[in-house]
């Protein structure tokens, strides 16, 4: 072999033997969601409730992507915020919207306690009929609310205790982009129960939520039984709060209610039409 050809062979062998450059793999939405659910910053107590709340399956059903702008309505103590904040932090946006006063103060304590996790989370008020600054119209890819519509029917936080659910759904519709998703989970009241029970039990009918959403302009896009609980009798001395995690009866029949678990819940998906 000619000398210069031997050099070419050696060089070619060296080049082909080089390792391919390493590139970081971008996790899929499913992987990113699983990581957020399993994240170490989540409290042990909150993780223990995953068996009833199925966060990964619920958010997957709603179709929430890590690039979305998501509004979480009435986040309470931040149970879902713990998951949504890291899931959306890098490529999306989370906005929490709570009523003015103690509703906003509660979630503010969670956000302020850990800027590393929650530093990018936006804050707004809902519903704006109670004051404050709402979410800008047409900016959300998804609006999610977990176990809250019954509160609007019951007039929670309103000065006169009046039902403001119609106005609330109109505001949800306004903040979404065309094609955006409204995801709702709530305590399910049997359809043959008295409507009056929606005002005092914490449970609400699927038909009521569908009527409210569709009157506001939403289209029904489907339901999931992922958060169903057939053990829930839905007829307790202190309403849904009799069950865990509240256990409003204290030690009375505590083991009975713990065996039932958290409430039977509907999981509904609606879409704002493109036109």
What does it look like?
The chain is α/β, with parallel strands linked by helices. The chain has one domain: Vaccinia Virus protein VP39 (Rossmann fold), CATH 3.40.50. Helix 10 crosses helix 11. It has a seven-stranded mixed sheet. The chain is built from twelve helices and seven strands.
Order of helices and strands: HHHHHEHEHHEEHHEHEHE
Q: Give the second-level CATH assignment, the architecture.
A: 3-Layer(aba) Sandwich
Nearest-angstrom radius of gyration?
24 Å
Query: In percent, how helical is the residue content?
Result: 25-40%
CATH domain class name: Alpha Beta
Strand order of the largest sheet: 3-2-1-4-5-7-6
Q: What is the strand tally?
A: 7
Report, as a whole number of angstroms, the end-to-end distance.
74 Å
The DSSP helix count reads 12
